[in-house]
Amino acid sequence: MNHQDFDRDREQRLVAFIRQHRSIAPPPAIDLQQSILAQIQHQAQPHRNISSAKSFKWLWLIPASIVSASMIIWQINRPIQTALTDTDRQIIEASLVTGWSVATSEESESDQLLITNYQ
Predict the structure, then answer these.
(1) CA–CA dist 14, 10 (Å, integer)
(2) For the segment 26-53, what is each residue's pLDDT rounded down to a tens digit?
(3) Nearest-angstrom CA–CA distance, 49 and 43
(4) What is d(CA 57, CA 59) in angstroms, rounded to the nearest whole number?
(5) Separation CA 70–CA 24 (nearest Å)
(6) Contacts (Cβ under 8 Å, ≥6 apart) of 92
(7) CB of 109 within 8 A of CB of 101?
């Protein structure tokens, strides 16, 4: 028995099993067509409250404009807050200068060591 015969045998057994155990479909509803047409006609009818639907379309603008206006007013009336004083700035500047000078001097020494080791 080669591979194709084995596949055909499995397929035939599967088809026989499915035919034996298939479910029986229920009978169609007698008024199926009428109910479908009634639903189509119901959905095709124009809506009566078109003007109220249009007014709700722009209703979201009211809370959005209130929030925007309150944010603008809050931003304008808020006092300007300075985070750093002059002494704080001088301390930070001195530490940055010291840090960079140490970093550049260490780099130059390490560069010199690398250059001398490779020569």
Answers:
(1) 6
(2) 888 888 889 988 888 888 766 565 556 6
(3) 15
(4) 6
(5) 66
(6) 84
(7) no
pLDDT tens profile 46-102: 656 555 666 667 788 888 899 999 888 888 877 666 677 888 888 988 888 888 776
Cβ-proximal residues to 84 (8 Å cutoff; 6+ apart), any chain: 92
Question: Helix, strand, coil proportions of the chain in percent (round to 5)?
Answer: 75, 0, 25
Question: What tokens does 22 get?
Answer: 């298939």
**Number of helices followed by number of strands (H, E) in the chain:** 5, 0
Q: Please give the single-letter amino acid code of residue 43.
A: Q
Amino acid at 78: R
